[in-house]
Amino acid sequence: MSDYVVVGSLSGAFGVHGEVRLKSFCADPAAIADYVPLYTEDGRSFAQIVLTGQTKNGFTARVDGIVTKEEADALRNTSLYADRANMPALPDDEFYYADLIGLTVLDTGGATLGVVRNVVDHGAGHLLEIAAPGASDTVLLPFTQAIVPTVDLGAGRIIADPPDGLF
Q1: Domain 97-160 in CATH: superfamily?
Q2: Tens digits of residue pLDDT in 84-136
Q3: pTM for the model
Q4: Exposed/middle/buried for 134, CB within 10 Å: 0-12, 13-18, 19+?
Q5: Would you call 162 exposed, middle or buried from its count of C-beta atoms within 10 A (0-12, 13-18, 19+)?
């Protein structure tokens, strides 16, 4: 699914009339409805999404083809993908998470630190989850300009200057 970007996820039913709980990963959370059609990993597509309200962690929504509580519950924990061509262009210093996953991370001296396994944000800023070679645990590297001065998507690498003792 390299031509697609994860934009949200479905979290099951909201009520008994087919509405779903929807979590948006978009910079403007309500913009998720603008990127239709949205797709699931198994190839199902949703041509229309109408946001009907807000919940603590997202929205309530009506999704075409979902009319019962059981159908909505069957979609619990389902990721939603948008076609990359429908996504807005980003400034030079911003990246889609999907573009960072799999990049090799090197230190400023050229030594390999690992590979980006995931990008997470727990509220205090973005973190790169790095799988270091030969290590069973991952390392969380703050994704800031000071610590990660260079991201080269074309070369498939990130240059990092991690704090002492992190790796």
Answers
A1: PRC-barrel domain (2.30.30.240)
A2: 888 888 888 888 888 899 999 999 999 999 999 999 888 788 999 999 988 88
A3: 0.74
A4: exposed
A5: middle
